[in-house]
Amino acid sequence: MKSYTDQIGNTIALNKTPKRIISLVPSQTELLFDLGLEESIVGITKFCVHPYHFKVTKKIIGGTKKVHYEKIRLLNPDIIIANKEENTREIVEELQKIAPVWTSDIKTLDDNKAMISEFGKMFNCRTEAANLNQKIDFALNDFLSFVSQRKVQKAAYFIWKNPYMVAGSDNFINEMLTLNNFQNIYANKGRYPEIEIKKMRLEGDPDLVFLSSEPFPFKEEDAFEIGRFTHHAKTVFVDGEMFSWYGSRILKAFEYFKQLHRRIG
């Protein structure tokens, strides 16, 4: 019997390497796949869109905020992988009655690296996990060299409309903004604050307004509306997966960020 402590402090005990995994988090589903665990994944959410073929080869057990407990129970999982931000405490507590639940809490690149290493131990893929972390470290160092030549710019990162909501601090999006030399003007307002766009000039007057592709599908008229309340901010549509997905997605994100910097000049 081996014990593992997750990133919110819960300890789970496993008497063997899990062979039936349910993932409740899209980015962690992608990570499990990239660690070579495709055959062990038996259940995913409807939002787990990478890899694409999983939507027809794996059992869909609901969304991230609403899961079908009976479907999960019938899959007889050895372990369920959750996330503090994506899944509610109530969901996790209910799922603990079915199988051990390992919950991540990813706010920094170090948190992400620790999760990958822990997956390597739990799922007996230490070599794959170590190799992935080495690739991420190499790509990160390369990107830091690239971005060191870029000036700091003030930014606002929008995730929702009606009401307008932005990424604040204490989350992975803010970590990615900081990594890119984007100074988040709403970093002092909590994790995902509601804001009044009419006050943007007073609250930081960003050089850049990012409109994320998820979870809200912003349109051109939204860019025009928000842009009216800045002095001369450049409004940019960005791939939300690259800013908010952790796990192995970060490898693709570094190259995306380079292209983004070249777009905005």
SSE diagram, text form:
Elements: E1 2-5, E2 11-14, E3 21-23, H1 26-34, E4 41-44, H2 54-57, E5 59-60, H3 69-74, E6 79-83, H4 89-95, E7 101-104, H5 109-122, H6 126-147, E8 153-160, E9 165-166, H7 172-179, E10 182-184, E11 208-212, H8 220-227, E12 234-238, H9 240-244, H10 249-264
Q: Compute the number of strand runs.
A: 12
Question: Please, what is the CATH homologous superfamily of the largest domain?
Answer: Nitrogenase molybdenum iron protein domain
Q: What is the radius of gyration? A: 19 Å
Strand content: 15-25%
Morphology call: globular
Q: Main beta sheet, described?
A: 5 strands, parallel
Can you tell me the CATH topology of the largest domain?
Rossmann fold
Count of alpha/pi helices: 10
Number of domains: 2
The percent range for helix content is 25-40%
Could you spell the SSE succession in H and E letters?
Answer: EEEHEHEHEHEHHEEHEEHEHH
CATH architecture of the largest domain: 3-Layer(aba) Sandwich
SS-based class = alpha/beta
Could you explain the architecture of this structure?
With 265 residues, this protein is α/β, with parallel strands linked by helices. It folds into 2 domains: 2-108, Rossmann fold; 150-264, Rossmann fold (3-Layer(aba) Sandwich). Helices cover 37% and strands 18% of the residues. It is built from 10 helices and 12 strands. The chain has helices at 26-34, 54-57, 69-74, 89-95, 109-122, 126-147, 172-179, 220-227, 240-244, 249-264; strands at 2-5, 11-14, 21-23, 41-44, 59-60, 79-83, 101-104, 153-160, 165-166, 182-184, 208-212, 234-238. The strands form 3 sheets. It has a 5-stranded parallel beta sheet with strand order 5-4-3-6-7. β1 (2-5) and β2 (11-14) form a beta hairpin. α5 (109-122) runs antiparallel to α6 (126-147). The longest helix has 22 residues, at 126-147. The radius of gyration is 19 Å and the shape is globular. The N and C termini lie far apart (54 Å). The model has no long low-confidence stretch (mean pLDDT 97).
